[in-house]
Amino acid sequence: MAEPYTIRMLVPDGDPEGVKIVELLNWSGIAVAFPRSEWLRVAARPEFSKSGVYILSGVSEGADSDLPSVYVGQGDIVGSRIQSHDGNRDFWDWGYAFVSKGDPLNRAHTTWMEYALLERARLAGRCKLENLTQPREPNLSESDRADVRGFLREILRILPLLNVRVFENPTPVVTSARSNHPGNVVPTDARDTIVVPAQEGGFERVFLGKKCWYAIRIAGGMLPKIKFIAAYQSAPISAITHYAPVDHIEPYGDGGKYRVVFSEPAKLLPNPVPFGDARTGSMQGSRYTTLTKLLTAKRVSDLFP
């Protein structure tokens, strides 16, 4: 069980969507979170004249997924490094800097934290890394390693409170075994299938090829009910054609979306369900139905009247 901790957050401008100064009780560090639009104004803060690590987050131009783009860096003067990215990196709209309130972090400390954050992000797979290279893990003394790991641990406790979760391994929020446990209460809402719209390229590559579907918004109350997923292929097919049983559902990125992972490959419906006379826009987003209805429906309007 994780230990409780106390966080202190200062919002210096009184704007909850603006700059935030974050500290933890008994932590030697301090964090500054800021929107890019405020960078030139906050750059004069004393924290940015220190050595530390920083994270830039946003969306890259032409991105082919809903994952955020992230750059991790370090510097002897973090403000100078961030300033350089203000001129040559367009993707980021939020920045997060972490420095020490006491003795300054040395280059080995900041390089190790940069390395560790990049490695965690790579393994978690919840963002598109903008870093072109991965630094090597620096050699640290036993005492330095203990110190820097402690500092990183507090960074990782702060980031989720700032809605940055790309350094966390996705943990299933629902598994088929848990949702089907005989001790669970049977829901009054019998809908057990989510139907997602899919274009040809993504359908072939992901739904069929990778046995999953991602970047889905799912209502919280529906998460434990979903046992199956079906794909509506957009024009020119314009029909629900395939379905698969769900193994588990896990967070995707850090924007409140999910990845649905199948327990076996998707298979063709015995009778694909054409769009037919359904209302315009009926399949522009995810919809819920039952597997029984899906297997017997003649047209989409039978599923979503």
Notes on the structure:
The model is unreliable at 178-187 (pLDDT under 50). The strands form 2 sheets. Strands 8, 9, 10, 11, 12, 13, 14 and 15 form an 8-stranded mixed β-sheet that branches. The protein has a 7-stranded mixed β-sheet with strand order 1-2-3-6-4-5-7. It is α+β, with helices and mostly antiparallel strands and 305 residues long. Helix content is 24%, strand content 30%. Helix 3 (107-124) crosses helix 4. It has 2 domains: 7-162, no CATH class; 174-303, ph1033 like fold. The protein contains 8 helices and 15 strands.
Number of strands: 15
Question: What is the rounded Rg?
Answer: 23 Å
Number of helices: 8
Query: How does the helix and strand content classify structurally?
Result: alpha+beta
Shape: elongated
Describe the main β-sheet briefly.
8 strands, mixed
Q: Which percent bin holds the helix content?
A: 10-25%
Task: Summarize the helix and strand pattern as letters.
Answer: EEEHEEHEHEHEHEHEEEEEEHH
Name the beta content range: 25-35%
Distance between the termini: 46 Å
What structural keywords apply?
alpha+beta; ph1033 like fold; 2 domains; 8-stranded mixed β-sheet; 7-stranded mixed β-sheet
Summarize the topology:
Elements lengths: L6 E4 L9 E5 L4 E7 L3 H4 L9 E7 L10 E7 L2 H11 L3 E9 L6 H18 L3 E2 L12 H17 L15 E2 H4 L13 E6 L1 H9 L3 E5 L11 E6 L5 E14 L4 E6 L4 E8 L12 E3 L1 H6 L3 H4 L2
Parallel strand pairs: 5-7, 9-11
Antiparallel strand pairs: 1-2, 2-3, 3-6, 4-5, 4-6, 8-12, 9-15, 10-13, 11-12, 12-13, 12-14
